[in-house]
Write a structure and sequence with these properties.
Helix content: under 10%
Number of helices: 1
Radius of gyration: 25 Å
Length: about 400
């Protein structure tokens, strides 16, 4: 038997339902109210060179009010950080080369600055030192192979990681090769790319294409310790690619490192002993903050891990239809980009979406944080400077 409710009862029921729905919506979106707490003011934008796609390792470098950038076509630019105007530029590629012959001179690493010298490296394995005061090339040095790793400098020594897993220390003042260390034989199956070195006092921590991570003395390249991230083949990893292409991170006396095969380790910085070992696949640089590791896996999911034991805290997968990258932390929020020019930010404790900003229509190649400003570079070498405004 059907029961007919009076109209007034039905009306009350509908109004209550609407009210409940509205309340639920506000509750579920309470975190989105934080969206307006961050705004971005565009200060300037500029373009360096033609529409060539930038190499990932060609990162902007900031020093004393100036931004230094390189594009793969051999140009170095100095830009006033306040105005975005190009102060000077130079071309390092031989002007006599034509068409395909020039591709072997493409810049692939740098720039980095120490005192008044700027350093870049190219596909041929040549390093240039440039005086930023008069734009002159101070010295050039040929090393073993293509440079696909960023430089670091310690005690007047320029450290260079080149293909075939060669680590070298050069005198930064004259380019003289002081020492050479072979990091082991690379596997036949290897990904094109190299791990950036990381410094800890007078030691350098470096990963290699054969799945080894080592600690070496900066002044002579001598081995302190070595640890293997090799892992046997499995059903999920039928091709055993053991490259360590991600820069290791040193945090509270522990080295955190990941290999292409999914091996993720926490290693004692002093001894090289394994503290914990987990399987987390990531092929992009990860970050650590407040004892939490944040990484992006190949499915574009973001993982939060306990840095003390490697246990999973949370996963978010709502960005899996985007190619996301460039994790960084600012103002207690996790930021990252996608391949459509968006910048996103989420809550680091729960992984809840907080907001986004459309920067460009193309993929963002790199982001540099300078205090409350963001330098954004897309894959076609367009540069933006944004001021981050925090709304109370």
């Amino acid at each position: 038997m059907k029961i007919k409710l009076p109209k007034i009862v039905m009306l009350i029921f509908i109004l209550c339902s609407i009210c409940l729905t509205s309340c639920t919506y506000e509750k579920n979106n309470s975190t989105l109210s934080k969206f307006n707490k961050i705004k971005f003011k565009l200060i300037w934008q500029n373009k360096i060179g033609k529409n060539n796609i930038s190499f990932k390792k060609l990162k902007p470098f900031y020093s004393k009010g100036f931004l230094y950038l390189a594009n793969k076509n051999g140009f170095i630019y100095c830009i006033n950080i306040k105005t975005g105007k190009i102060i000077w530029s130079i071309n390092l590629i031989n002007k006599s080369c034509f068409f395909s012959s020039c591709k072997y001179e493409y810049l692939t690493a740098g720039p980095i600055i120490s005192n008044n010298y700027l350093y870049v490296g190219n596909k041929q394995g040549k390093i240039f030192a440039i005086n930023i005061k008069n734009k002159s090339v101070v010295w050039e040095q040929n090393i073993f192979n293509e440079i696909l790793s960023n430089f670091i400098i310690r005690k007047n020594i320029l450290l260079v990681h080149s293909m075939d897993d060669i680590l070298q220390g050069l005198d930064k003042n004259n380019g003289k090769i002081l020492w050479t260390a072979h990091l082991g034989h690379s596997n036949i199956l290897s990904i094109r790319g190299l791990s950036d070195p990381v410094l800890f006092f007078d030691n350098v921590i470096i990963g290699s294409d054969n799945g080894l991570i080592s600690s070496r003395v900066v002044t002579n390249g001598f081995l302190v310790w070595e640890q293997s991230l090799l892992r046997m083949n499995s059903n999920k990893n039928f091709i055993n690619i053991n490259d360590i292409d991600i820069q290791p991170i040193i945090y509270k006396g522990i080295v955190y490192v990941s290999s292409y095969n999914g091996n993720f380790m926490a290693i004692n910085l002093s001894t090289g002993d394994i503290i914990w070992e987990k399987i987390y696949f990531t092929h992009k640089n990860f970050i650590i903050n407040n004892n939490v590791i944040y990484l992006i896996d190949p499915l574009n999911r973001i993982f939060a891990l306990n840095a003390k034991n490697g246990k999973l805290i949370w996963i978010i997968d709502e960005f899996k239809n985007n190619k996301i990258d460039n994790l960084f932390i600012y103002n207690k929020k996790i930021f990252f980009t996608n391949n459509k020019g968006f910048l996103y930010w989420i809550d680091p404790k729960e992984g809840i979406f907080l907001g986004n900003k459309k920067i460009d229509k193309y993929k963002i190649n790199y982001i540099l944080v300078i205090k409350n400003k963001l330098v954004v570079q897309n894959i076609y070498n367009k540069i933006y400077l944004f001021k981050i405004l925090t709304i109370s």
